[in-house]
Amino acid sequence: MFRLLCATTLLTASLGAAQPAAPAAAPAAELSVGDAIVLGVVEGVTEFLPISSTGHLIIANRVLGLESEAQLKDKDGQPLWHKRPTADNPTGEPLTLKLAADTYAVVIQAGAIAAVLFLYAQQLFLMIGGLFGRSSAGLRLLRNVALAFLPVVVFGLLLHDLIDKYLFSVWAVIVALVAGAILMLWAERWRDASTGVGRAKGDAADLAPRTALLIGLGQCLALWPGTSRSMVTIVGGYLAGLSPAKAAEFSFLVGLPTLGGAALYKGVKSGPAMIEVFGWSNVLLGAGVAAISALIAVKFLVHIISRYGLAFFAYYRLALALILTVVYLL
User: Fold this and answer.
1) In a designed cystine with 53, which of 47, 246, 261, 327 is the match (CB 3.0 to 4.6 A)?
2) Number of neighbours of residue 279 by Cβ within 10 angstroms
3) CB contact at 8 A, 70 and 97
4) Are 83 and 95 in contact (CB under 8 A)?
5) What's the pTM?
């Protein structure tokens, strides 16, 4: 709980750094308590499972009716702006429900981050010890986490606007769900043939720097919504020779700076607009629910992947893709 409060405090500070030009006296659109809880559960459960949190949140936003791109207005009927018109951008960027909901889905990741901080505190302290020269294994683990994180920072910043504009759609998610499932089933067959089910081959701290960097490059595939960051990094861990549990653990650790950076970037860029639309209470509620859900989901993932591998989640992805295809074709 302490770590959740810390994450929430940091999030509050980052969002409060830039105030909206014309804040409304009350939220401009209603996000019900039920909606906030649903989005928090979806985020927390799916963030670390290899089934794509972004894809599920896109779907949840559509089901909850949070995709309107009509410009919102304040209580006096005046239009609200995310970015007001300027000489360089005469049309500006209207403040919409969809923009606020997309930002909300990323920002409440703070709750999922807090859950991993709690569950993997020992590894975090080990890395801190390595930073101060007290643990060679901790220093190697910190190095590998940093190398796996670096590529997604570069490509994420370069491609962020294009991804937001062209890839946040249900059909993009369906394609990624199927492709990811095929990759997972192939990885399971490869692991069975190469190492035998459940056979451990080292720790993430023992990965060569080049291998950690390659896993990071693979993580960039998850910039496509529906792919799943955890899926790509777990598969990368498989290929590097890690056991399923160790591959999942490395995925969680790499996810901390990845998710934290995304939440901070989105919070600074669009957080004030999101607060103007939804208000603070629902943001904090969603993050809290995400934290509790993620605690349960991480333990579930480690149990399932240690016993059955990735196949269970691959078949889930295929089933979800089929259901979505039928629903949206009809």
Assistant:
1) 47
2) 17
3) yes
4) no
5) 0.81
Question: In angstroms, rounded to a whole number, what is the distance separating the alpha carbons of residues 314 and 305?
Answer: 11
Give the pairing of strands 81-83 and 93-94.
antiparallel
State yes or no: pLDDT of 130 exceeds 60: yes
How many Å apart are CA 37 and CA 30, to the nearest integer? 14
Which pair of structure tokens corresponds to residue 29?
């659109």
Contact 235, 186 (CB under 8 A): no
What would the two tokens of residue 201 be? 């081959």
- Helical segments of the chain, H only: 2-16, 33-46, 53-63, 97-107, 109-119, 121-131, 136-166, 170-194, 209-219, 229-239, 244-278, 280-308, 311-329
- One-character DSSP codes across 130-182: HHTTS-HHHHHHHHHHHHHHHHHHHHHHHHHHHHHHHT-SHHHHHHHHHHHHH
Query: Rounded to an integer, what distance in angstroms lies between the CA atom of residue 276 and that of residue 298?
Result: 32
Tell me, rounded to whole angstroms, the distance of Cα 312 from its chain centroid: 21
Residues β-bridged to residue 94: 81
Tell me the pLDDT tens digit for each residue of 298-316.
Answer: 999 999 999 999 999 999 9
Amino acid (1-letter code) at residue 263: A
Tokens matching residue 142: 């910190």
